[in-house]
Amino acid sequence: MLKISEAQREVLQAAALTRYETDMVAHLTKRSPNHATVLGPDGMIEAVRFGIGSAAEHGYTLRGPVRLWLELMFLFGGYFDEDPLLPAGAKQLIECDNPDRQMLAAKQLHAEASDFLARISGPGNTYNHQALARIERLAADDTPFHREGLEDRLFDAFSRAHPQKIETLGQEPHRRMITQAIDQAEEMGVTAPRGIAIFPVMAFIVGSGFAKDPLYPWISRTLDDPKRPDPNERAARLEQRARTYLRHVLVNLGIG
Q1: How does 220-247 read in b/e, with b if 16+ C-beta sit within 10 Å?
Q2: Residue 2 has pLDDT above 60, yes or no
Q3: Which tens digits make up the pLDDT trace of 128-156?
């Protein structure tokens, strides 16, 4: 009888993983063409590999559940599993400790995510599109920012930009997200109130892990730019690039 050596088994497993990665890149390119355009083939592969690894850390290793994890990642951000805005129902399903329950857990996670999306997206994703347009208008407001009361000002802005999201998740997760993002800005040495404010805005738009998200490498490059050692200058540059990104998204959507 033909016997397969351990080395051959590893090669076959590696080949199967490569095929799966290629399949997922093709699948996600169709679902998220804007991401694919910005990331390019190498960036998409990197993002997929990151997502496969992230899924495995939470106990999801089968093809179907991993595919769902990648889809959620491209919808809610690469670190959606750590996001304060992750719905409570989904949060309970993030960890899958029993390998035999992966398919059931993934099915339940899909149901929770679908319900959440339906609530915050609206017909034809109308609510999300309107929110992006409102945030762009808010970003154009040159009214000076002040550190005192910044949390309340941002919460009010997000409430006006996407009331359906606030209503669905409630105030507490959003305020926690704002506080967490402000802390992150200040830990990075940002002191300008407007520079601090861009951190919660990015967390609201693309997810709380925006500063390290492989789906948005331009953000980490901006915040880590060695040519701009001043944290406030980096934050200002991030705002500029974020506004350009937002304008590009809206133009692609045919808005504005």
Answers
A1: eebbeeeeeeebbebbbbbbeebeebbe
A2: no
A3: 999 999 999 888 888 899 999 999 999 99
Contacts of 27 (CB under 8 A, 6+ apart): 67
Contact 202, 242 (CB under 8 A): yes
Both tokens of 137, joined, read 């208008």
Name the nearest CA neighbour of 174 among 72, 83, 74. Answer: 83
- Output the six-digit token pair for 82: 């750590």
Looking at residue 140, what DSSP letter applies? T
Tokens of 95: 């960890």
- Write the pLDDT tens digit of every residue in 86-117: 999 999 899 998 888 999 999 999 999 999 99
Spatial CA neighbour of 212 closest among 111, 68, 80: 80
Alpha-carbon distances, residue 30 vs 14, 50, 205 (angstroms): 25, 19, 21
Single pTM value for the model: 0.91
The Cα-based distances of 15 to 5, 11, 65, 70, 96 in angstroms read 15, 6, 20, 20, 26
Q: In terms of DSSP H, where are the helices of 94-169?
A: 102-121, 126-139, 150-161, 163-169
> Which sequence spans correspond to the domains of the chain?
6-121, 124-253
